[in-house]
Design a protein that fits this description.
With 246 residues, the chain is α/β, with parallel strands linked by helices. The protein has 2 domains: 59 residues, Immunoglobulin-like; 140 residues, Ribonuclease Inhibitor (Leucine-rich repeat, LRR (right-handed beta-alpha superhelix), Alpha-Beta Horseshoe). The chain is built from 4 helices and 12 strands. Strands 1, 2, 3, 4 and 5 form a 5-stranded antiparallel β-sheet that branches. It has a 4-stranded parallel β-sheet with strand order 6-7-8-9. A 3-stranded mixed β-sheet has the order 10-11-12, with no helix packed on it. The N and C termini lie far apart (50 Å). The C terminus is likely disordered.
Amino acid sequence: MTDYDVQYRAGTSGSWSGWGHNGTGVTATLTGLSGNTSYQVQVRATNAEGTGSWSDAGSGRTAEPPSGGICDRTPRVRDRIVALLKNRHSYKGDCSRVTDEQLAKLESLDLGRNSSTEDEFTMSLQGHDFEGLVNLKRLYMRETGLRSLPAGVFDGLTKLEELELNENKLRSLPTGVFSDLRSLESLKLHDNPVTAVAPYDEFEALPDLTYLPVDLKGRRKLQVDGGEGDASSMSRREARRRIGCA
């Protein structure tokens, strides 16, 4: 054998999601799954003759997730926060014991897809996912399959300087979604199928914004508050006047 592939899905029907398993190891740990949920898993092998068929599905149910702390947040957000606290701040607990004091220690959170180890996936955010991250300066969510942003999802992130939402599936942006990001300097929205954004005075309210590339799936024009704005790179002054800058 030269490699194994793994795929999984919740329940007994619907599409399968690939799991980033590489090599000939015969065990895999799937993380970021929903608690108290039944899943099916299939495996297939590759050797010198080619790739075989998928195995019969094995099934199992995940444990009931702990309550309290940040356990009710989107699994990818929750797991990345806990991992950061353990790796950089000597945290010993699980999601149920994370406090506001510990959340305030984080200055960077990367939720983006690692294209070398992860297959494509779709992440859906909840409005409270970033609560308590009062000192966060960098938030990266590129290639996460985002289709929408909940209203108020960035509220309270007043120290955020960099926000990456590029290479997703966003078609629109909620009114006021960036209004609390008073320290924002860089906002990446390019490579999204956005066709309309909120009135451009919302960008005018971001005094430090100096970088906003908006090449949206090849579109060079955006409908902005009833008019068209050039989606190519612009000067900072033009960015604040309209919606894009370099």
